[in-house]
Amino acid sequence: MPKFSRLRSGHILARRWFAKAGLEAHADEYIRYLTEHGYAVPTVECYFRCVAHFLHWAVQQHAAFHDVGDALIDRFIHGHLPHCQCAPQCRRTSADVHAALMHFLDMYGIARATQAPIVSVSIDAELAMFTQYMMEVRGLSESTRHVRRRHIGEFLADCFHEQPIQISKIALADVVRFVMRRTRGLTPGSVKSVGGSLHSYLRFKAISGTPVTALIAALPRVALWRLGGLPDVLSPEEVRRLLSAFDRSNATGMRDYAITRCLLDLGLRRTEVAHLCLDDIDWRAGMNFRR
Ligand SMILES: [Zn+2]
């Protein structure tokens, strides 16, 4: 549990709003969740106050917490925030509020999923064997075992729900989907931690004879999976649509268009474009890059 350097009045008010929404027990749980996901104390405090602000508004709207979904969040962000007069300390940055609420709902969903009895029985048995392997074979510390056990518990619940665990039925797409969802908004270090947990677990399964070679082979690239959906190159049609997106009737649009043409036509890197000067260009010979 992080100790905030100083409890500001806004933070005390935020705790009160959690309590009024009947979610007092989840206040510390949310702080712990964000901290375990690698967020720095100022971000944790910011998100905490964002969620508290939302809960305060939701209570006034007589909305129960199980009613919370995209529609209610949209009403809060687009309907309430621009005209909010709740309290001076309230967080009103829509991007922060949205991220904070997504994490809060994510935490709430995970907490409920792990309470499902059937999931607990089969997954707990698997986690017990994995924990024994981490302790006796790998000699991992208690804190590392705790983190990996939690990651793998979430992974197995995501893959199998209430079905019996059959590792051979896990497809690469299942692993990618879990990592994409689980690592949304995390720091690179936390993303690597999730990948490390999966790697450790699959190695454990490989030792027991489960065919997981293909899944393990895909794991070292886990830190780059956020970019995995991006195409290597753009098609001619995509290039045409990209270039036609700029409004070249004003200076900003012309600048953006020129930057994009440097990237596309000259293959310059971002930093090279950023540092490009007029003297770098041989105007008589054309667009020759002199450095
Ligand atoms: Zn407000």
UniProtKB/TrEMBL annotation:
Keywords: DNA integration, DNA recombination, DNA-binding. InterPro entries: CB, DNA_brk_join_enz, Integrase-like_cat_sf, Integrase_catalytic. Residues 121-206 form the Core-binding (CB) domain. Transmembrane segments: none annotated. The keyword Magnesium does not apply. The keyword DNA-binding applies. PROSITE patterns: CB, TYR_RECOMBINASE. Residues 229-291 form the Tyr recombinase domain. This is Site-specific recombinase XerD. It comes from Paraburkholderia terricola.
